[in-house]
Amino acid sequence: MRQPLKVLLVEDCEDDAALVERALRKGGFDLTSTRVHDAVMLAAALAQPWDVVLSDFSMPGFSGMDALMLCRSLQGDVPFILVSGTVGEETAVAMMKAGANDYVMKHNLARLAPALQRELHDARARASLRRTELELIDSEKRFHAFMDASPFVASIKDHAGCYLYMNKGWSTAFGVQGEQWIGKTDGPARRNLRIVPSASDLEVLDSGTITETIDEFHLPNADVAYWQNTRFPFIGASGQRLLGEFSTDVTALKASEETIRKLAFLDPLTGLPNRRLMQDRLLHALAVAARSKRYGALLFLDLDNFKTLNDTHGHDAGDEILKQTGQRLSAGMRAQDTVARTGGDEFVIIIEQLDCVTEAAADAGAAIARKIIGLLDAPYMLNGNLHRMSASIGIALFCDNQPGPDELMKRADIALYSAKAGGRNTQMMFDPAMQARIAMRNTMEADLRLGLEHRHFVLYFQAQVDHAGTLIGVEALLRLQHPDKGLIMPAAFIGLAEDTGLIHDLGCWAIETACAQLCTWSTDPACAQLTIAVNVSARQMGDAGFVARVLGIVEGSGANPHCLILELTESLLLDEVDCTISKIIALRRRGIRFSLDDFGTGFSSLSYLKRLPLYEIKIDRSFVQDVINDTSDAVIVRAIIALAHSFGLSVIAEGVETLAQRDFLTSLGCSRFQGYLFGRPVPVDMLDVPA
Ligand code: C2E
Ligand code: CA
Ligand code: CA
Predict the structure, then answer these.
(1) Given 153, 362, 494, 676, which residue has the most CB atoms within 10 angstroms?
(2) Beta carbon of 490 within 6 Å of any ligand 1 atom
(3) pLDDT tens per residue across span 665-682
(4) pLDDT, tens digit, for every residue of 568-609?
(5) What are the residues whose beta carbons fall under 8 Å from the beta carbon of 609, sequence distance 6 or more?
(6) Is the CB of 507 under 6 A from ligand 1?
(7) At what angle do helices 89-98 and 64-75 cross, to 10 degrees?
(8) Which residue, judged by its Cα, is nearest atom 22 of ligand 1?
């Protein structure tokens, strides 16, 4: 097969051109050729590609050198062979130097074909090399563009730690000309900048794996910078071990991480650990106690009457108190102890490393709690005014992983509850009896809820009689008829119902049931005049919706409001007198009357009696009990009766158990009685009502 060849002949002599063509055909080429002989023609011909340019040297007005120059400028490295008569050696050398690829003399054209073959081969090799070079340049360009645009600080070092490459980011980050460091080691540049990672380059090279470190650097201006360094060993083209490195400044990221951490674990108001962090510290403290066999203490602290301060002085004042409390607590405790704010006005203090002996640890814990109470006892400055705040503290000890964190917190809480119940501004150490009481309370609370839901409550009625012993009314007394535990008396649950708020529903149920009973009696002329006195507790009366609720019940039931008496205790009147008075007035207007229960046991001034639109006062059982034997009680009772009468109030004595008591009370001017003498509290069907 003949080899196709596109030849551009630069030749003024047509015969010579024919000779050249013949020589080439003879040499095995399948020729396509064009002949030109001046610059214009050559330039035009070079618009298309040629396999080879064969050029004579001397032509009229044009030379081989001119042709060569034109070729090189218009078609780069197309093979150019000078085919000429004898030219001087000097010319030939000049041509070769100028880029001619070969020189064949016209009288030796037999050499042309092999020379051309070789030249074509070389040209292909050159083209391939050129392509490779271009690709390499292209790849380099891409690499640089890519690396310089990268947000990373990147570099490559050889195994001796000398820089081979760094990107623009590197120069920018370190404020130095990267090129200056090519061939140099890390040392001076980065050490000045204090940005030398914690693991050495050699360690990374030897490890053979990607190493990622986050390193902290203290800058000369006292700021701290964080750099994340990713380094990886790799093998270069010639087999040398190299180290690549990507670094990025993560200082800002760290800062936001820190903010998030603070948000997650610190209370924003006081800057103290929050509940989550406290729980974490508690686990840690338990572990320390287990190891050291020394007791620690968990203190729950609650500000007394904080809610009142918040309500009366506003939330800003409340926040200020909390902040100052946090500061006092932190300042007063040792560094290894934890002070946390776990919500509202609740603080938790974890004290570690007390003592190995239980009693000594308990004493130490109590002493610290006393100290804290003292710290908080100093007046607080609020908007230029002094305020006093007190706190209650519950303490629970732990040692040797006992008890677990949940139980421990429960214990501290129970102790705190007891401290609060014990009159506030005080501390209480958890003891197991406390827990038993709480457990009983919890069971009782569940019983109350269940009782309300399943109608386990019943109203017992106790007779109230006049001087002749005639039934004039009853007092309604609550009982819980528990399916398993039997009849439960109100002393066991009224206080709890008040604390839990269940008293609202329970109290309404009692009024409803009493009203239903009044309705039943109203149809029987013998009973239609009987009154029912229902006890109302302070919590109920304090409820803003109390008046509306009672009126709703009474009116809804159709009972005669004149037959309903509500019994209030004296203590009730101590708080919010004006509010209570307006409620009494509102209900009285609808016919409902009020009796003041347990009279004489409270501290209320008798002058209240004047302001209260009462119907009756009820002399407390305790006076009745001793009225015969205790002369001072007799004096008090006589005074009470006289006073009541002077205000136009009716008087009833409760707890009358003997005829002697009844007679004596009669002699003092009392004309109504209630007590075991006339009947115990009983279910309605056992009540001795007039036939
Ligand atoms: P209270 O209002 O002082 O009720 C009188 C209590 O004295 C009743 O006890 C009654 O059984 C008892 N008692 C009556 N006569 C005698 C007597 O001759 N001798 C003695 N030693 N005791 C007598 P109870 O039923 O156990 O009620 C205790 C307290 O529970 C009541 O005291 C009242 O404060 C409260 N309570 C009862 N039912 C209700 C209610 O529906 N609502 C509210 N808020 N409290 C209630
Ligand atoms: Ca009563
Ligand atoms: Ca009473």
Answers:
(1) 153
(2) yes
(3) 999 999 999 999 999 999
(4) 987 666 666 778 889 999 999 999 999 999 887 765 556 667
(5) 596, 617, 643, 644, 647, 649
(6) yes
(7) 10
(8) 655
